[in-house]
Fold:
Amino acid sequence: MGRRDLLKLSASVLAVAALLPLGVAVADGGLAPRARAAFDPAGMDFYVDSTMGPIKSRVFRAADGNTNRVVYALDGMRARDDLNGWEIETNAVHALIAANINVVMPVGGMSSFYADWTSPSTFLGIPAGTLSGTGSGAAQALAGGPGKTSTYKWETFLSQNLPAALRDRLGFSTTRNGVVGLSMSGSSALTLAAYYPSQFSYAASLSGALNLSMSGMRDAVRVAMLDAGGYNIDALATAKDARWQHIDPYTFAPKLKANNTRLFISAGSGLPSSADAINASTIQGMGIEAIALVGTKSFQTRFNSIGGKNVTYDFPAVGVHNWKNWESEMLRLIPDLSANIG
Structure:
């Protein structure tokens, strides 16, 4: 097998495996204990109208009461409709508010990539809601619900509806915000920063899928979306639609350079820490994170090749694909975030 064939094969394997944490075998956060923090009474429910209907976010106020330092914390592939995974699985919000940062956690958006989709998710032209489904995966494919009975418009929501409401009702600044995403939303954080530079001066990707152009990646995303709620990738964008390139950090990397966006890009080594129990979930998370690392390194190579410099890369010696890893990275990036927003 020649070098080119080996690279192509490696890319295909990477593409399929990298999306596993996004839905095929593991829920985002499914590798960590559930309900570690769960509902936090310090937060407020903040509803905003949109074309998707009323969308809830959870808002946590900065300790010093400022309104100009704001970060959006995005969820993973299996985002729930009651709480954001950062609140369910971690205590990172308390470190953020102690650093005098207001935290906005959008709720919902399963399988959405926080993108504006072309149409509601349906299959074979059968209207959503034709069948009811429970659980995840193909059983949900013909069920109704967010992104099915309406079209996902998450990019519009996060760049227009939500910041306007936060400004008008809470006085929050709509400029020089930060955005942090993990797994599925790692690429989403970079997308928002690339196309809305006045709103987002800082973006962080933790174990993100940062090369959607990679061979086999679209097929992997297709399977992941089907498993995580029964969504059809073609409703997001067809393979030749510019919308697909629009959400691919590898493609739009020059925008991040031109904007001089401050970036924090991270992925673990795939090796467990002493606090990770050695079980099937940890072993699975080891492989997934190791492959996420390769994809993140691919973006690093691309960004370096175009002269991108305003970035911190963090590749810790230990860390598997779980909330424990992402919480550690969030705590690690707070000083950098704090220095580059507001």
